[in-house]
Write a structure and sequence with these properties.
This protein is an alpha/beta fold. The chain has three domains: 20-26 and 284-425, Nitrogenase molybdenum iron protein domain (Rossmann fold), CATH 3.40.50; 31-152, 3-Layer(aba) Sandwich (Rossmann fold); 178-273, Nitrogenase molybdenum iron protein domain (Rossmann fold). It contains 17 helices and 14 strands. Helix 7 (156-165) runs parallel beside helix 9, helix 10 runs antiparallel to helix 11 and helix 11 runs parallel beside helix 17 (407-425). The radius of gyration is 22 Å and the shape is globular.
């Protein structure tokens, strides 16, 4: 096997594409949504949102966790007394934090998470976090980040959270290069990717870790792979610590996972035959499983509304591995450096839009009449009423989709709505 994954000669790709830039009304969740997967990952952390009752209802309903289940998130509600200046917000927050830590002695890392309401009233959570650190350190470390929905898309909540953690990562003392995978992954996916890398002879740290006491070290000898495409601030923070980013497609589908693993293998000098032996069996299983899904999806036309920043890697996957035709690929933000390998694998002439103007995008979508539309919850019902089959974009974030073993599951997220439509039409 060759040491690189070749790009097909006929696809010079969209590396130099000029996207259709749109600035208008947007339909996205806020960054607080990231707490839903982050609180499951870092098992001794707690996410305390400083916000309104609306913030509390959003997280509670989206996570589907009952209050009596003692989840690792909660909301310190800003009420009328705070807004009217009848109570000192900082004193109230100190009281809430003290009560929380007394009730939950298992907490080792506490995030004070900003929201739209806390930002509107100019509440300085960074100062609050510093004050709480002085009180509770070393038993509990307190950090803050913004989960506000103002001028952001919802996956940027994870980016802000991880970026806030980077300055506190220990300095790497080892002189040999070390590998880090950056981005929150389901535990089963993390275990699978770790196993593949270790079979190549590579030791790897994952960030964020499952326990805040096991933060990976970082330094000039750190090489990192991004597991998620929406971690621009985190990548910059790691690079400021001297770490080096390994450019690669994202680990979605057989092709993307192979190229992602190959980036690590090439950086650490893994022999081609070792790479082949480590990846051959899971790659073949995934290819066989995808062949079944391709029968449903081949030739179907798909339209992506901007939502999560996963859109470009997903478009590459459904086009190259499932044979779908790309009508439009919308993304909230286009990070050309991180997306360069993905853009190179998109077919020339792909219509790519950056940002959102809902009305204009809806007009194009209805005119194009695609077979499947990937969009947010707020657009799905109106499009279904127009006879267009939809897939909720949020499912693609909440579902484990990375790696070989999840490739068929990822394809199934696209095929199931079409199968449902066919059954209803029969």
């Amino acid at each position: 096997m060759s040491s690189v994954i070749p790009i097909r000669a006929e696809t010079t790709g969209c590396t130099d594409v000029t996207p259709l830039v749109e600035r208008g009304q947007r339909e996205v969740f806020c960054g607080l949504t990231g707490i839903i997967w982050l609180h499951r990952k870092i098992q001794d952390a707690f996410f305390l949102v400083v916000g309104s009752r609306t913030c509390a209802h959003l997280i509670q309903s989206a996570a589907g966790v009952m209050i009596f289940a003692e989840p690792r998130f909660g909301t310190a509600i800003i009420d009328e007394r705070d807004l009217a200046g009848l109570a000192d917000v900082h004193d109230e927050l100190d009281r809430v934090v003290s009560q929380l830590l007394a009730r939950r002695p298992d907490i080792r890392l506490l995030f004070l998470v900003g929201s739209c309401p806390s930002e509107v009233i100019k509440l300085d959570l960074s100062r609050a976090a510093e004050r709480q650190n002085q009180i509770h350190h070393p038993a509990v470390r307190v950090l803050n980040y913004s989960g506000s929905g103002i001028e952001t898309t919802f996956t940027q909540g994870e980016d802000a959270c991880l970026a806030a953690m980077v300055p506190g990562l220990p300095a790497a003392s080892a002189t040999a290069p070390a590998l880090m995978v950056v981005g929150t992954l389901a535990d089963v996916v993390e275990d699978q990717l770790r196993s593949l890398l270790e079979r190549m002879g590579l030791q790897v740290n994952f960030f964020p870790p499952r326990n805040s006491q096991a933060m990976p070290a970082v330094g000039p000898n750190t090489r990192f792979l991004l597991a998620q495409p929406f971690l621009a601030d985190t990548a910059r923070a790691l690079q400021s610590r001297g770490a080096q980013h390994l450019p690669a497609p994202f680990p979605l589908g057989v092709e993307g996972t192979t190229a992602w693993l190959q980036a690590a293998a090439s950086a650490f000098g893994v022999a081609p035959e070792v790479f082949e032996n480590a990846t051959a069996a899971p790659r073949q299983r995934a290819e066989k499983a995808l062949a079944v899904q391709r029968q449903v999806l081949q030739g179907q036309r798909i339209f992506f509304f901007p939502d999560s920043q996963l859109e470009i890697p997903l478009a590459r996957f459904v086009h190259r591995e499932l044979g779908m035709d790309l009508v439009e690929v919308g993304t909230p933000y286009l990070h050309r450096q991180h997306m360069a390998p993905e853009l190179a694998w998109l077919p020339q002439g792909t219509r790519i839009s950056e940002g959102q103007d809902v009305d204009r995008q809806l007009e194009r979508c209805l005119a194009d009449a695609p077979d499947l539309v990937v969009c947010g919850l707020g657009l799905a019902n109106p499009l279904e009423a127009e006879g267009i089959t939809t897939k909720w974009a949020i499912e693609l974030v909440f579902t484990p989709i990375q790696g070989y073993e999840q490739a068929a599951d990822l394809a199934g997220l696209f095929s199931r709505p079409l199968k449902r439509r066919m059954k209803l039409a029969a």
